[in-house]
């Protein structure tokens, strides 16, 4: 079965007054790493790597994460969007940074997500998520609307979902819901040959798509990989990096 897949793994190490977090994300289109150091509840340093990315400008977005330095650790991953402008960031590095900061704020040592979204057929799919603590989500989706189960019935994955999830769901579940929502949207890219796009679109939605750099953000042909039958290969090259804490 043709299927979009994403894996997220986050490791944390704590010290008496701070700690360090290392986070990785890999899917059909992306492979990113984010590392951060925090001290006395504040983000002190943050960096990112882009082993595989869709546009030539994507790695440059790592510098934009510096906008999160000085942020107070917050257990709500989406809180990063209140600290700096998300549209000037790489969407996926930024999401990963938010998850890493949230894990540090909660004082946990690990978080892992497995997501799969079968290719949409006639506008329909079932998006699925499993988390390391046993939480599972399964949404039947038609176009941009979640059909089931409750309480997600009737919620749009494109408009207003972050606000709805953060105000309606338990905090721990809202994080997972927004992780799955991101994948349900970007998995639509598997329904077309994105290598035919010469450069990023000047939509202003992320770092590479800012109008002033979109035409110079050249498509990396061949950067889309198929993990339909190779879930085991996701983040396969990240094990050592995830344990490479400083100090």
Explain how this protein is built.
This is DUF2889 domain-containing protein. Pfam families: DUF2889 (PF11136). By secondary structure, the chain is an alpha+beta fold. The protein has a domain at 121-190. Helices cover 18% and strands 29% of the residues. It contains four helices and eight strands, in the order ββββαββββααα. The protein has an eight-stranded antiparallel beta sheet, with helices on one face. Strand 1 and strand 2 form a beta hairpin. Helix 2 (161-168) packs antiparallel against helix 3 (171-186). The longest helix has 16 residues, at 91-106. It starts with a strand and ends in a 5-residue tail after the last helix.
What's the topology here?
Elements (H helix, E strand, L loop, with lengths): L2 E13 L2 E10 L3 E9 L2 E11 L38 H16 L3 E9 L5 E8 L4 E7 L2 E4 L12 H8 L2 H16 L52 H4 L5
Antiparallel strand pairs: 1-2, 1-5, 2-3, 3-4, 5-6, 6-7, 7-8
Helix pairs in contact: 2-3
TL;DR?
By secondary structure, this protein is α+β, with helices and mostly antiparallel strands. The chain has four helices and eight strands.
Oligomer: single chain
Helix percent reads 10-25%
State which percent range the strand residues make up. 25-35%
Category from helices, strands and their pairing:
alpha+beta
Mean pLDDT: 95
How many helical elements?
4
Beginning-to-end CA distance, first to last residue:
44 Å
Largest sheet: 8 strands, antiparallel
Low-confidence blocks of residues: none
Categorize the overall geometry: globular
């Amino acid at each position: 079965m043709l299927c979009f897949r994403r894996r997220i793994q986050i490791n944390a190490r704590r010290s008496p007054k701070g700690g360090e977090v290392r986070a990785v994300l890999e899917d059909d289109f992306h492979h990113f790493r984010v590392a951060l150091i925090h001290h006395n509840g504040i983000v002190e340093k943050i960096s990112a790597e882009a082993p595989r990315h869709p546009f030539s400008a994507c790695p440059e977005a790592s510098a934009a994460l510096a906008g999160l330095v000085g942020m107070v650790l917050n257990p709500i991953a989406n809180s990063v969007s209140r600290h700096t402008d998300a549209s000037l960031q790489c969407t996926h590095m930024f999401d990963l940074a938010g998850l890493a900061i949230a894990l540090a704020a909660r004082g946990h040592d690990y978080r892992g997500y497995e997501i799969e979204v079968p290719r949409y057929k006639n506008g329909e799919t079932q998006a699925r998520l499993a988390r390391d603590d046993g939480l599972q989500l399964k949404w039947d989706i038609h176009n941009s609307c979640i059909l089931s189960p409750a309480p997600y019935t009737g919620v749009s994955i494109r408009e207003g979902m972050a606000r709805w999830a953060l105000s309606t769901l338990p905090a721990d579940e809202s994080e997972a819901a927004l992780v799955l929502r991101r994948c349900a949207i970007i998995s639509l890219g598997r329904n077309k040959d994105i290598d035919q796009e010469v450069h990023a679109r000047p939509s202003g939605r992320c770092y590479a798509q800012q109008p002033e750099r979109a035409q110079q953000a050249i498509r990396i042909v061949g950067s889309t990989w198929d993990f339909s039958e190779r879930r085991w290969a996701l983040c396969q090259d990240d094990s050592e990096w995830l344990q490479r804490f400083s100090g």
